[in-house]
Amino acid sequence: LEGLTEPPEPGMTRTEVTYPLVELLLPELQEFLVYVWRRQLAAATGRVVQAADDEEMVDRRLAVGFADLVGFTRLTRRLEEEELGELVESFETTAADLVAAHGGRLIKTLGDEVLFAADDAGTAA
Q1: How far, in Å, CA of 113 to CA of 67, rounded?
Q2: How do the domains of the chain map onto residue ranges?
């Protein structure tokens, strides 16, 4: 921010210049930080699963679910790139929140698709 916050008028403090920029960028930064946190959590979970004993993984039964956005391909022809990005981000966020709220685990997101697991079929439904 330093390069963007050179005081435009003599006598202005750096804080007076920087604060409005921070207020402007904060919503975007919050969304980005949540996205980064989710990706890191997914990667860490993947590492734990890979490191688990084979015996532990063989004896475990899980329900696996898959969801995607109906009509997404058709939407890609009509929406602008920014709108598509917002739609996919909203879908991934909603899916992750719903899966977690119902006791499931999000395994992977890929555009308009999510793969998740739960301890039983009732939870996965």
Answers
A1: 6
A2: 11-58, 61-125
No. of helices (H) and no. of strands (E), the chain: 5, 3
Task: Give which of 65, 61, 87, 64 is closest to 74, Cα–Cα.
Answer: 87
Per CATH, the homologous superfamily of domain 61-125 is Nucleotide cyclase, GGDEF domain (3.30.70.1230)
Q: What is the pLDDT of residues 70-96, one digit of tens each?
A: 888 888 888 888 888 889 999 999 999
pTM for the structure as a whole: 0.52
What number of other Cβ atoms are within 10 A of residue 117's Cβ?
Answer: 17
What are the DSSP calls for 74-91, one per residue? HHHHHS-HHHHHHHHHHH
